[in-house]
Write the structure tokens for this entry.
Amino acid sequence: MARYRGPKAKVARRFNDPIFGPSKAVQKKAYPPGQHGRSRRRKPSEYAIQLMAKQKAKYTYGVLERQFANLFDKASRKSGITGEILLQLLETRLDNTVFRLGIAPTRRAARQFVLHKHILVNGQVVNIPSYALKVGDIIEVREKSKSLEVVTNSVAATATKRFPWLEWSPETLTGKLISMPIREDIPENIEEQLIVELYSK
């Protein structure tokens, strides 16, 4: 299945945000990558700013162009604030939820975890990272995968990091989507209104 395989530090520096996790490159070099990174640049156009907002969201959630366009189309058909609904759809993907629950240390690791059939949804193996969860769905680690070092280390490292739309039981490594996330609770620094404006052109 296709996914971005390029350099992560370069992308993080482009947005000046460690979107793939902690990055020394972002901390040390507060200017864009490339030979002209430190030179004076022209003020970006409105389109360029909107495009950067979309690209940042795509890289953050590990979604490619066609998937992202399909999610936006789905969000625009629902009643409500399109930008917030788009973020809800991104947040409730299975791979992102596995990451949010603390089962995997990064979204990339969560994607691999799902692909390798370590995750159950409502008691059934689901190996599709983009699987759209619904309120009430139960997500758990397969019994034979609960002792994996990557799982125990990740759960221990994120023991105090919880999100209000998710319920989590560390004893059984089981989580539940109890509600759709609201914008105020989503920690990602994404300007979703710019994405809406871009697609509305």
Remarks:
- The longest helix spans residues 46-61.
- The first strand starts at residue 119 and ends at 121.
